[in-house]
Specification:
By secondary structure, the protein is mainly α. The chain has one domain. The chain has helices at 2-32, 39-57, 59-82, 90-112, 138-160, 162-172, 174-179, 184-207, 223-230, 235-255, 270-281; strands spanning 127-130, 134-137. The protein has a two-stranded antiparallel ribbon. Helix 2 (39-57) packs antiparallel against helix 3 (59-82) and helix 9 (223-230) packs across helix 10. 44% of the residues are buried.
């Protein structure tokens, strides 16, 4: 029982990172109908910025500044490289975002160098001991709480602010939003900025308790089955999908020894197995919008 609870707590912490990454993918997709493959680069950018800022200003200020700076970088890239492609086929724009990801990572890798960099997290590997002998690393609790606060703020922004309402309107129908005076260009820019900031926070928390190297971006690949599992256009689906994938991964890693026939490190592929199982039942994901075409 103790192993089960500890695995669930670790899974919620890991799943929180996946949820932040998936939210970035979904926000851009809802605004532009394009899957942005540049999220791994923004994730790496944010983590590297924290490693440079943490010394002068401390971890929390560095995290905030890195999120703002990464959001600014994402906004600039949207203006310079993506905005001129408006009206082009979606596939073309998606390939361009893949090129952006590679280009940005090449530049950021130059700031990492051949060594690894540390974010100097304030929790280290400190353990909280809960009733029943249950232990959990403080960083996993911090991940979950931070993600919960960010998600609450994000949903409040979409529901109660003027710009948030404009983004929701544009996600439903861009032409109707334009007719009502909504600046769709501003919606595009803000969606990229938000996605970049969320990726920066996710990248930093991945590096907490570990380090930042040139392979950090690979974690972002797990967000792809998350958004497909939850639904490409569903913000709640991104959150629930991220937490579900993180939890299943940790449970698999804990109890994999009971099924040695699965081979080693089967937990690495569990997000894709879970995605396939869900798609067999719900092709549009758990919360995705079902598209109906009349012929």
């Amino acid at each position: 029982m103790r192993d089960l609870v500890e695995s669930l707590l670790r899974g919620l912490g890991t799943g929180s990172v996946y949820a932040l990454l998936a939210l970035g993918f979904v926000i851009i997709y809802k605004a532009t109908r394009v899957i942005s493959f540049a999220q791994p680069a923004f994730m790496l950018t944010g983590a590297v910025l924290v490693t440079y800022l943490v010394g002068p200003v401390g971890f929390f200020a560095a995290l905030l500044l890195a999120a703002l700076l990464t959001g600014g970088v994402a906004l600039g890239i949207e203006r310079l490289a993506v905005r001129p492609m408006v009206g082009r086929p979606v596939f073309t724009v998606a390939i361009i975002t893949l090129g952006i990801d590679i280009a940005v990572r090449v530049v950021v890798n130059g700031f990492i160098g051949l060594d690894v960099r540390q974010v100097r997290d304030p929790w280290g590997l400190e353990i909280w001991r809960l009733p029943g002998g249950i232990t959990v690393e403080q960083r996993h609790i911090a991940m979950f709480i931070t993600t919960a606060v960010l998600i609450a703020g994000l949903f409040a922004f979409f529901r109660f602010t003027r710009m948030g309402l404009a983004m929701r309107a544009a996600s439903f129908d861009q032409e109707a939003a334009l007719a009502q005076g909504v600046s769709v260009g501003a919606v595009f820019a803000l969606s990229w900025a938000l996605a970049g900031a969320l990726a920066a926070v996710a990248g930093t928390f991945v590096a907490v308790g570990s380090s930042v190297d040139q392979n950090l971006w690979l974690i972002a690949l797990t967000a792809l089955p998350v958004i497909i599992l939850g639904g490409l256009d569903s913000l709640p689906g991104a959150v629930i999908g991220g937490l579900a994938v993180g939890t299943v991964q940790e449970l698999t890693a804990t109890y994999q020894s009971n099924a040695p026939w699965l081979g080693g490190n089967f937990s690495v592929v569990t997000p894709y197995v879970l995605m396939l199982l869900v798609l067999l039942v719900r092709p549009y994901g758990l919360f995705g919008t079902r598209e109906v075409e009349r012929v």
